[in-house]
Amino acid sequence: MAEARGIWRWREFPFTSGANNLRLDRLNDKTGYARALKTGLPSPRTRHKKTPMTIETKEVVINFQDVVVELGGQKIYDRLSFEVNKGEFVCLLGPSGCGKSTSLRVMGGLLPITSGTVQIMGLDPSIAWSKIAYVFQSPRLVSWRNAMENVLLGIELRLGPGNKSAREQKALDLLALVGLSKEVKKYPSILSGGERQRVAIARALAVDPEIIFMDEPFSALDPTTRERMRVEIEQIWQKTGKTIVFVTHDIDEAVQLADRIILLTKKPTIVKENIPLPDARPRSLGLPALALHRNRLLQMFNSIESDSKT
């Protein structure tokens, strides 16, 4: 399918065969082995044996390796290295000005690096742009297009002409996913800040990206709306299985959302800490385990701020 490069750069589970439920109890070993050779079914001698638990191998989809970025003679990154696995929700956390948003520009192929390597799904970022989508701090909706038309814009820019009715149905489905099934014909001027950001999320999903970059998408919202949007993006991530890289300077936001937090230092930026969080979801910041992570992050944040002043 022909692709048109644009701003918005838009999983199957194996099923076990029912045949394995066939009983071989009445077969002797000899007959059982013959049947196993013909059908691929386990023989009576082996089918009850316990096998070691299979360890799931993680697929790395983003790889930063010893990345140095210099802008205007200033070193932004000093051999920055980290990885993101497929399906992970990773938060890049750090104080303002540490280069969090810069990392998204690098991963999107919008900013060249001085040295090191960056790969997106094994590809150079300049080639992998079609596998990613962005959600910015500002929704960046087109004022003369309604909610559905703004979602369709992402598809039009990425994929060019196509089946109009199928695309409209996809836009409707995605707006329903983000809780806007009754607002499809509304224009940005009459949508709330949270609703506009939901349209932007639906637009990003519309091009079916492997990875979504979110650059402080809730920071401009009021506290109540911001909290609601955190819950909703967690639900959307769980339903879609997308890989999300989420930039924030808000510790509570990172602790509530992330599978793993990558804490960055002040410039020249390196990884201060790589922090996995408990699997349990939905999350409440009142949980003791999360409170411990939050307090630890606050201490490290204060340490980073102190180091930058010395």
UniProtKB/TrEMBL annotation:
Keywords: ATP-binding, Cell membrane, Membrane, Nucleotide-binding, Transport. It comes from the Bacteria. GO terms for molecular function: ATP binding; ATP hydrolysis activity. Transmembrane segments: none annotated. Residues 62-291 form the ABC transporter domain. It holds the Pfam family ABC_tran. The keyword Nucleotide-binding applies. SUPFAM superfamilies: P-loop containing nucleoside triphosphate hydrolases. This is NitT/TauT family transport system ATP-binding protein. Belongs to the ABC transporter superfamily.
